[in-house]
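hi! just following up on the protien thing from before. the input was this:
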Amino acid sequence: MSAEPPRRARPPSHGWRRGKQAWRATLASLVAVAIAQLAATPVRADPGPRRARVRLELTRGPGTEHCPDEQFLRAEIARRMSFDPFDAEAPLAMAASIVQEQGELIASMYLRDRGGRLRWTDGYRTRGDCKTLVSMVALSIAVQLDDPGERPPPQAAPAPQEEPATPAEAPCSPERPCAGQPALPPSEAPPARRPGKAAPARELRSVQVPPSSSAGQAAAERFRWSVGAGATMALGLTPGIAVGPTLAVTGRWPAWSVALEARGLSSLSTNVDDVRVATSTLTANAALCLHRQFLFACGVGELGVLRVVPEAPRIARMLLNLRAGIGLRAGVRWPLSEGLSGYGTAEAVQRTIDASLLRRGGIAEGERAIWSAPALGAAFGIGLELNL
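and the predicted 3d structure came back as:
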């Protein structure tokens, strides 16, 4: 039986290897295209926080024309902020005003929205320089509008360029100063630091921002008491001219005031129709006044008594020694110091209850009037007022 001859082995197929290589090449091409698309896509930057923008308006009242104008205020605010806050179309309106009252400069700030609602207010007052006051207004507005959290981060410092290596030198010190630097005397040299011990941290001093008041209008509506003393000259209250002291207590707001006064006046005339008499009057006044800068105007109510003492009691007597009237007063007040002011007044009073001085004659003559209070009287006064 003859053996079967061995068959020749078939060489292995290489088609699956070529397919595997083509698949890898296709996958690599897709990955490269995706990476190129991602690299070409722009990255949208974060729009960042919204910053407040306002419309600014500065008003200067009478007597403050020497104060810096709105352009100066804008420049001072922008200098203290990290962005320009002014926009003519902004929904928020920042109004600042400067007025002068009794020698003081008063600054008020109001921030309102488009609907007119009050969002923030502040105020200052000073007797010093108006430029300093406007600078304080600018600082207050800048602190209110510029949120520290919205300030841009500091830019990174550029990487230092490589320089050729130089031989190492010993560092400068007080004992070994650098070239051109004088050595410090031993009393001024800082203490030597021990090896391995960190340098002490520098002390950081924070800038104290003036606290904002509850409201600018609250400062403008501040109430205070004052007392006054002066001298008054009156016509029509007694026979002839009457002079005497006046004392007053006043409750004062910036725009108006209420005062209670007491006057004690004596007549300079001692002879009425050949009758020697001593005449005096005691008057209580109430005044409601409106104030505008240094000027004021008042409505006055007056109630008093007239006392007549004749040299011969049986010669003359008073008829209705009670007197009353209403009138008007105008005046000027000027500041002398922080709490002291001077004033001058002029007033006219219409009598509603008049007094008369009667003289007794013989049995046949009876009594006759030798003096009657005129229908209209006048008074002029000067004095000092102390703020409490």
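The CA atoms of residues 323 and 348 lie 15 Å apart.
The longest strand covers residues 275-292.
cheers
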